[in-house]
Design a protein that fits this description.
By secondary structure, the chain is of the alpha/beta class. Helix content is 51%, strand content 13%. It starts with 5 loop residues before the first strand and ends in a 10-residue tail after the last helix.
């Protein structure tokens, strides 16, 4: 039985970039662009209507910016996978996107092959940060947190390791033999203790404080 294609919604206010993205993705049989949006408002409406697996989100949009759109989208669809694709890679944009719940951040200058792989990874539950951004975020986080100690229970550490491997809450619960509600509670406690609001941020923060090593991500 042939695997179902990954359904992608492209959100960008430039038609040329939307067209280019569609051509890159639809050259691969496992990827399908199911819709396009030129504003945040249209994007939110299309997510409700089309239920895409991955939303490619630009940051600079007319009206509501991509970070706010992502925040609202994740509130209504907690399992949604948003990959930010932006011409801007300043730390405040990257952090803002991760805090809003984005699963990854990629530059518009990234090669098409890298975009395709990022979409597949995000759809599979893995967090994606373009090379260079991870190192910068870890450096900034370490500088801000020198001397900070985070006290996680063994159970919370186990949950964090599985989050780093890209497992969704339901899969994580099945592997640990606990309910999804219990997983949600553990995640809330982990986020509170680490001072973050998303799983991608939690993994970056955990690596920076040496709670996890980079190998735990795989």
């Amino acid at each position: 039985m042939e695997a179902q294609a990954i359904r992608v919604l492209v959100v960008d206010d430039h038609a040329l970039h939307r067209d280019g993205t569609r051509q890159i993705l639809e050259a691969h049989a496992d990827l399908e662009v199911v819709g396009e949006a030129d504003s945040g408002e249209v994007a939110l409406a299309l997510v409700n209507q089309l239920h895409p697996d991955v939303v490619l989100m630009d940051i600079r949009l007319p009206g509501m910016n991509g970070i706010e759109v992502t925040r609202r989208l994740i509130q209504d669809h907690p399992d949604a996978r948003v990959l930010m694709v932006s011409a801007y890679d300043e730390d405040e944009y990257v952090r803002g996107a991760l805090e809003a719940g984005a699963a990854g951040y990629l530059s518009k200058t990234a090669p098409g092959k890298e975009l395709v792989q990022a979409v597949r990874s995000v759809a599979g539950g893995t967090s994606v940060l373009q090379s260079g951004l991870t190192a910068r975020l870890l450096t900034a986080t370490r500088q801000a947190e020198q001397g900070v100690s985070v006290d996680l229970s063994e159970r919370e550490l186990e949950v964090l390791r599985l989050l780093a491997q890209g497992l969704r809450n339901r899969e994580l619960g099945e592997q640990m033999g606990i309910s999804t509600r219990t997983v949600d509670r553990h995640c809330d406690n982990i986020y509170a203790k680490l001072g973050v609001s998303s799983r991608t941020e939690a993994v970056v923060r955990a690596i920076s404080t040496k709670l996890l090593t980079v190998s735990d991500e795989h």
